[in-house]
Write a structure and sequence with these properties.
This protein is mainly beta. The chain has 2 domains: 144 residues, no CATH class; 59 residues. It is built from 1 helix and 18 strands. A 7-stranded mixed sheet has the order 7-3-2-18-17-13-14, with no helix packed on it. Strand 15 and strand 16 form a beta hairpin.
């Protein structure tokens, strides 16, 4: 199941349509010396690693995107990304993405800003600890499930569940207390994600950048 944090559904597509209607796009070759903010993500699961990228002017801005052309280009682990567009298999707004497969130890983002200016930022997949989900338990109609793994400083755990009822798709963010995810009486596809944010080292100053590194697990709750 290819995803950054959650699977696509009809509601997601409607939300994305609204997002696309409110966003704008610039071609990089028209921006001159405007600094580019680098927004990267690396998503890890048992199924493999996917890398994502988004660029905007001056600062982080998910509603306004830069399409790389002219002198500008992006390479991830040695592969140039030439396709630009939202991935309909994911509920995220990164216009560049690349499936890297399994066994990836590090992800290198190489952004060629202009001739003789290449910005390289690398993250190790081992910098985020994996985990797995236990069996759910139910008491008085309320279900909970534990995520099982080592604690890790400077990370956060989030959870959401999605379900379908009569052709209508819904999702809800869940409460996480310690290593326990509170499901209540909800049934559907559960996603639990551990994530951390790392600042980029090489930047198109004065603009900065970040890499969101995450590990996620999914489980169907019946």
């Amino acid at each position: 199941m290819k995803r950054l944090s959650t699977i696509w559904n009809i509601c997601s597509i409607m939300l994305l349509g609204a997002w696309m209607a409110s966003c704008s796009q610039d071609d990089s070759e028209d921006l001159g010396d405007t600094p580019f903010y680098q927004d990267y993500a690396v998503s890890i699961s048992e199924e493999g690693v996917t890398a994502y990228a988004h660029f905007s002017k001056d600062k982080e801005d998910v509603l306004n995107s830069i399409k790389l052309d002219g002198e500008q280009s992006l390479w991830i682990n040695g592969s140039e990304l030439t396709e630009y567009g939202i991935d309909l298999n994911n509920t995220n707004t990164y216009p560049y993405h690349l499936d890297l497969g399994k066994g990836i130890k590090s992800v290198e983002f190489k952004f060629i800003r202009k001739k003789n200016m290449t910005l390289t930022n690398t993250v190790k997949t081992s910098d985020i600890k994996g985990f797995h989900l236990g069996e759910e338990t139910t008491l008085d109609g309320n279900t909970e499930i534990a995520w099982i793994g080592e604690d890790q400083e400077n990370t956060s755990i989030s959870a959401m569940i999605e379900w379908e009822d009569g052709g209508v798709y819904s999702s809800q963010t869940l409460e996480v207390i310690g290593n326990i995810v509170k499901l209540g009486d909800l049934k559907g596809m559960l996603t639990v994600t551990r994530s951390k944010t790392i600042n980029t080292i090489e930047n198109d100053s004065p603009a900065g950048g970040k890499i969101v590194l995450s590990y996620f697990c999914t489980k169907e709750i019946k």
